[in-house]
Design a protein that fits this description.
One of its GO terms (molecular function) is hydrolase activity. This protein has helices at 4-25, 33-38, 59-74, 78-91, 105-115, 140-150, 157-168, 174-191, 196-212, 218-225, 244-256, 261-269, 275-290, 297-300, 306-320, 336-348, 356-362, 367-379, 409-427, 433-440, 446-458; strands at 354-355, 384-387, 392-395. The chain has 486 residues and is an all-alpha fold. The protein folds into 2 domains: 4-320, ADP-ribosylation/Crystallin J1 (ADP-ribosylglycohydrolase fold, Orthogonal Bundle); 336-427, Arc Repressor Mutant, subunit A, CATH 1.10.10. The chain has a 3-stranded antiparallel beta sheet. β2 (384-387) and β3 (392-395) form a beta hairpin. α3 (59-74) crosses α4. The structure holds magnesium ion. The site of magnesium ion has 6 residues, from α3 and α13.
Length: 486
């Protein structure tokens, strides 16, 4: 991290900006835009649908605080995050006044699933009607964590996997995952210090370029392309319901069409409907950009536990950004088979072929290493050809070379595994993956299937399948599968 002090300030601003935005929005939640126009919010108020004192923040902040605590103590640990959410819901931990008064249906259902033994990343609802903003509102600490730990400037497979898995815990629809990914990428761009307009546009367009490459997001991709011109939208076009796409649009629109923190959050609240979450999400961005000093003092002194949260935000920032820029040893550590598969992935997705230089730029290795990897792929039956000029490697999709016999048993097992994984990478459908796998490889065990999928998911694939197809968490008599099984 080049500028540690600046980053710490940005983190504090984001956390406090979000908390104050949430508290401003709570008394106006569920009010229509017309009502808001008649009685606009201009300062902290009490009352509203939840009948809370002025400065009370809601579930958005509670979940953000849980996520921050978990990231500080354990790094990325979905199990621990869910445990904290569960304690918030059942024991009112991390609440403004010891009471949970606002919780989304999808979040509640996911925590219930978790309490009954389901692994965290399988708790989220993937239904079309479960596309609320519940994962978007709590994702920004994860983005800041990734930014602090790895000095990220743009979304990559590793970051996307963590962001998506964080969303999967409560919201598993591709729309929610993609909204979180785009939002986090905007945060990465804002943290890098580019001018506001440029940072948001860069963040959105880079994230869109990332998602365009993935089949899994193809059918929701189009819904997000209009974000590129969000700064030109008129107020009538901006919706502010609890739908994840609306919250993302409204937050970015408020940020780009205002010139200070208070203008931005008040604009978000006065859009009406899901006021607290819209203002919390917009407030995180505005707080990050303008800094905590811009939060008006009369709002600060009413916000519940403001000083305590300020102190916690500082601690969070200092924990997530390492003193010196030391690379995390687990990051980008890659096994031999992962590297061979990455080489295959690049060859597979470059129809014009990829040169040795291209491989060297994309992966960590030298010419000899990649030549050996390609030889291994050929041994596994992949018909990789070389165009002699400039030595460009490409996959001849039509026929597959007859694999040469192998004498070494270890090598033979490796080649067998590679043959299977290459076929999965080439042909797996993005729905009913496990059914396709079992039909394609009828003699391979379920455990091996899980290992294969885990191997590819570690490379950034998005293969989702039900680990326990027969287990229903809503069935009273069902016995939760044991953790050690996978
Ligand atoms: Mg709320």
């Amino acid at each position: 991290m080049k500028n540690r002090e600046r980053f710490i300030k940005q983190v504090e601003g984001a956390v406090l900006g979000s908390v104050v935005g949430d508290a401003l929005g709570v008394p106006a939640e569920f009010m229509s835009r017309r009502e808001m126009q008649k009685h606009p919010v201009t300062a902290m108020r009490s009352g509203g649908a939840h009948q809370q004192p002025a400065g009370t923040w809601s579930d958005d902040t509670s979940m953000v605080l849980c996520t921050m605590d978990s990231l500080m103590e354990h790094g990325v640990d979905y199990e621990d995050q869910m445990q904290r959410f569960s304690r918030w819901l059942s024991a009112a931990e991390n609440t403004a006044h010891g009471e949970v008064f606002d919780v989304g249906i999808t979040v509640q259902k996911a925590i219930h699933c978790f309490d009954r033994g389901r692994p965290p990343v399988f708790c989220g609802d993937k239904a079309e009607n479960a596309c609320g903003n519940g994962s978007l509102m709590r994702i920004f600490p994860t983005a800041l964590y990734l930014c602090g730990q790895y000095s990220l400037e743009s979304l990559d497979h590793h970051a996307a996997e963590i962001i998506h898995n964080t969303s999967y815990c409560t919201h598993a629809h591709p729309r929610c995952l993609m909204a979180c990914g785009i939002f986090c990428n905007v945060i990465f761009a804002l943290c890098s210090g580019k001018p506001l307009q440029e940072a948001v546009q860069r963040g959105v367009s880079d994230a869109l370029a990332y998602y365009r490459r993935t089949d899994f997001f193809r059918w929701v991709y189009r819904e997000f392309t209009s974000l590129q011109s969000i700064h030109r939208w008129r107020e009538q076009e901006v919706k502010s319901s609890g739908f994840v796409l609306h919250t993302l649009q409204a937050a970015l629109w408020c940020l780009l069409t205002t010139k200070s923190y208070d203008q931005c959050v008040l604009k978000a609240v006065n859009l009406g409907e899901d006021t607290d979450t819209t203002a919390a999400v917009a407030g995180a961005l505005a707080g990050l950009w303008y800094g905590k000093e811009q939060i008006p003092p009369d709002w600060r002194c009413v916000t519940a536990h403001y000083d305590e949260i300020e102190e916690r935000a500082r601690r969070f920032a200092e924990t997530i950004v390492p003193e010196k820029n030391r690379p995390d040893p687990t990051f980008r550590k890659i096994s031999r088979i992962s590297r061979v598969l990455s080489v295959y992935h690049l060859i597979l997705h470059c129809p014009e072929g990829i040169s040795m230089e291209g491989l060297r730029l994309s992966l960590d290795g030298c010419t000899k290493t990649f030549q050996r990897d390609i030889a291994l792929l050929r041994q596994a039956g992949e018909n990789i050809r070389v165009r002699s000029k400039g030595r460009v490697y490409f996959l001849d999709q039509g026929t597959y070379a007859h694999p040469a016999p192998i004498k070494n048993r270890i090598q033979e097992r490796l080649v067998q595994k590679l043959r299977r994984l290459c076929l999965v990478m080439r042909e797996i459908p993005w729905e009913n993956c496990d059914k396709w796998y079992r039909e394609t490889f009828p003699h391979v065990s379920r455990r091996t299937m899980q290992r294969d999928f885990a191997q590819l998911n570690a490379l950034g694939y998005e293969i989702r399948y039900d680990r326990w197809p027969d287990y229903d968490p809503f069935d009273e008599d069902a016995i939760p599968p044991k953790e050690g099984r996978y």
